[in-house]
Each structure stands twice: as C-alpha cells, then as structure tokens.
Amino acid sequence: MKRVADIAVIGAGCMGLSIAWHLARAGAGRVIVIDQRGVATGATANSSAILRTHYENPALASMAWHGLKVFSDFEAIAGGPSGFRKTGFLFLGGKKDAAAIRKTSRAIRALGINSVILEAGEFHHIEARTSRDDIGVVIWEPESGHASASVASATLADAARRSGAQISTGETVISITGRKGRVTGIESTAGKLAVGTVVVAAGFRSMGLLEPLGVKLPLTPVRHPIAVVTTAGSHPVAPVVGDRILGAYHRPEGSNQFLVGRYGFMDGDRDESVEEAKPARATALESLLKAFKARWPYEANARLARSYTGVYDCTPDLEPALGPVAGVDGLHVAAGFSGHGFKLSPAVGEMVAGGITGDSSRIARADRFDVRRFELRSLK
Ligand SMILES: Cc1cc2nc3c(=O)[nH]c(=O)nc-3n(C[C@H](O)[C@H](O)[C@H](O)COP(=O)(O)OP(=O)(O)OC[C@H]3O[C@@H](n4cnc5c(N)ncnc54)[C@H](O)[C@@H]3O)c2cc1C
C-alpha cells in the first residue's frame, strides 16, 4: 500500500520531536517523524541540557528564555517531566570582556529576562566556593539550571503521539524527492512516502539530505568531550557555571558529580562519523579536570569517573538554520544548532511549525535564521 502523510519530519532529536508535537497539536494534518535509529539517539542523547539565556543575539536570548520557562513547567505544558533542576547559572567573564558581557546582560534584561550583573562582593553571597582572582564580571541567572535531554525527549515523543503524530524509528531517509520546485515525497529504507511538506531536522546529516535539492547548509561536525567528575563531598546547591575564562562549563549531576565540558563551540575534533560513540581524548579530559579544580579549589581531590563525546553540528556563524527554504516549496529546515540547541528546542518547535501552519510565533522571527544566508554570503 502507498504510504502517504501531510508532513514528514526527518529526525527524532529534541528538534524534530518539538516541531512534530507543535504541528500535531495544531491539527496540521498527518505528521510522521522518521529516525534512522530512535528517539533522542543523536546529539540530543549526549546533551548536557543546560538552560541559560546569556546570548548576544537578542532573538536567541528570547528563544532560550522561552525554553527555560517551558522546561521548568513541562508537566503542565507537555504532560510529563523534563528533569528540570533550578540551580541558577553563573557566567564568569574575564577583565578584558567585562564591558561587552555587562552590555549583553543589560540588553537581555530589557527583554524581560532575569539576568543580573554581580559586583565582586555580591558574587561571594551567591557562590563562595569558587576562585575569583581572574574574574572581571559575573552574570547571575537565578532562574536557570538544567534539564535531562532524554527525559524531556521521551515526554515530547509521548505528547506528539498523543496529539496524533506517528514516530517511525529504524527508518533511514535516503533522499527527498521534488518536482518543479516543490517537495513531493521522500525515499527511505521503508520505501516511498508521498508527502507535501518535509522538515529536515537531522543534525549534521541535514547537510547531505539538502544538497541534492540545491540547498547549501555548511555544517562542520565537531566532537565534544564531556568529563564526569566525582567530587569528594556533596554539593546540594551548586549552580551551573559557564567559565569563559578557563574555557569550561560545569553542570551539577546528582549531589556529588559534575559534567564538565569545553566552553568553545569549535574546540574539538572534526568528526563526520557522528553516529559512533567514541571515547574522549585523555589530553582533553586532563584539561577539563584542571579547569574544574582551578575554579573549585576546595575540590582538589575530585576525580574523573567516566567520559563520553557527542557531536555539535556547527554553522559558520554558530547560529541555527531555521524555517522555510526559499525556492523549494514545502521544504523546511531546523539544523545547525552548533552545540547549544537543546534550550532552544521549545521555541524552534513553535517557530518552525508556525512557518508551516501560518501561525507566526511571538518568540522571535525565524527569517533571522534563514538557511539561504550562507549562500548569499558566499556570493559576495
Ligand atoms: C556533548 C553535548 C553537550 C551539549 N550540551 C548542551 C547544553 O548544555 N545545552 C544546550 O542547549 N544544548 C546542548 N547541546 C546541543 C544540543 O544537544 C543539540 O543542539 C540538540 O540536541 C540538537 O538536536 P537535533 O534534534 O537537532 O539533533 P539530533 O539530536 O542529532 O537529532 C537528529 C536525528 O536525525 C536522525 N537522522 C539523521 N539522518 C537521518 C536520516 N537520513 N534518516 C532518518 N533519520 C536521520 C538521527 O538519528 C538523529 O536522531 C549539547 C550537545 C552535545 C553533543
């Protein structure tokens, strides 16, 4: 029997699931999510799921703030847990960057986001245990924290199914078919599917799916190591720390562990075998542990418990590619999240689905993230 749907979403990571849920609950038609492996098995599986809002781009700050509000009230909004923990987020900047960081904090505060600039004395009241001699500025986000990407994705998948979406796992999309400038279907390992709208939310693999349609999305797959560090004692109220000075972030995990990752989005090995689980390099782990101990001097006896790596799908400007693709009717993209997409996924779901149903989102405009910007730039 011929398979037919109205909208196919390629990829069941946090983005594909969020988009599908928004589409299905808006009654956009028959929605199918297709994933070559399973729900949350790509970058989403390894996400540290940190929710913070300090972005220079105001659209991203608004999207992150929306994500924070959604994940902190996920039971009421999506009908299940997100694993949210409100730990607060401390962003530490050096003396050189202090003026620019203060400016960003003031700008996002003007958007209604709870971002506070702390002076040296006030910082001590929030977190007295860190070293501070090298710090030029501290931003405190009291409402931020982290979620669990796998828990939130499972909730989203259930919510999407309950709203009528179908999720097909173990099915690989081979190509998107089109005629006369419009999408007509997809070909996958399960055969042909006739469909009028396709959303490509396939992480780094989005690039290869879009290329035959003449759409250039330059993505670099960058493999990021995460060190899981066990501390000597417990840390019941440790905040998430974004340490721009020492180049690492620390996220509490349970009461006696931290996930420690690199701060720089492009710091890491270029690696196209994104589906393979690979161990972190010993040198990378050593430097992460060193940065952690330097910031938390009382944790001199902390030790490495385990490690893993995950892949960032980085665009040249480290901002995502979102929304309809001009020139190919029925084709939409949600990719290139460059290592900071989890927190944006509730907003991306609303914005990309709205671009299909015609309901414009008030969070931010998707055309700011138009995929065609890369081609236009390369023509200059
Ligand atoms: C180590 C690490 C830590 C991170 N920490 C944070 C953080 O703290 N905060 C934050 O906001 N973000 C973080 N991120 C980034 C965030 O996790 C990602 O931006 C987000 O998960 C991307 O989701 P996605 O749905 O776009 O991609 P993915 O989760 O990669 O999903 C894409 C899916 O597409 C499927 N697919 C690919 N090709 C095909 C095909 N041909 N046919 C069918 N299916 C296909 C894949 O199987 C995959 O499941 C982190 C990422 C990593 C790797």
Structural overview:
The chain is 28% helix and 27% strand. 51% of the residues are buried. The strands form four sheets. Strands 5, 6, 7, 14, 15, 16, 17, 18 and 19 form a nine-stranded mixed sheet that branches. It folds into two domains: 177 residues, 3-Layer(bba) Sandwich (FAD/NAD(P)-binding domain), CATH 3.50.50; 155 residues, 2-Layer Sandwich (D-Amino Acid Oxidase, Chain A, domain 2), CATH 3.30.9. α1 packs parallel to α7, α1 packs across α10 and α3 crosses α10. The mean pLDDT is 94. Bound molecules: flavin-adenine dinucleotide (FAD). The site of flavin-adenine dinucleotide has 39 residues, from α1, β3, α2, β14 and β19.
List the helices and strands and how they pair.
Layout: E1 3-4, E2 7-10, H1 14-25, E3 31-35, H2 43-46, E4 50-51, H3 58-71, H4 74-78, E5 89-93, H5 98-109, E6 116-118, H6 120-126, E7 137-141, E8 145-146, H7 149-162, E9 166-169, E10 173-179, E11 182-188, E12 191-194, E13 197-200, H8 206-210, E14 220-230, E15 240-243, E16 248-253, E17 257-262, E18 269-270, H9 282-295, E19 303-314, E20 321-324, E21 331-335, H10 345-357, H11 373-379
Parallel strand pairs: 1-12, 2-3, 2-13, 3-9, 5-15, 13-21
Antiparallel strand pairs: 4-8, 5-7, 6-7, 10-11, 11-12, 14-17, 14-18, 14-19, 15-16, 16-17, 20-21
Helix pairs in contact: 1-7, 1-10, 3-10
This protein binds flavin-adenine dinucleotide.
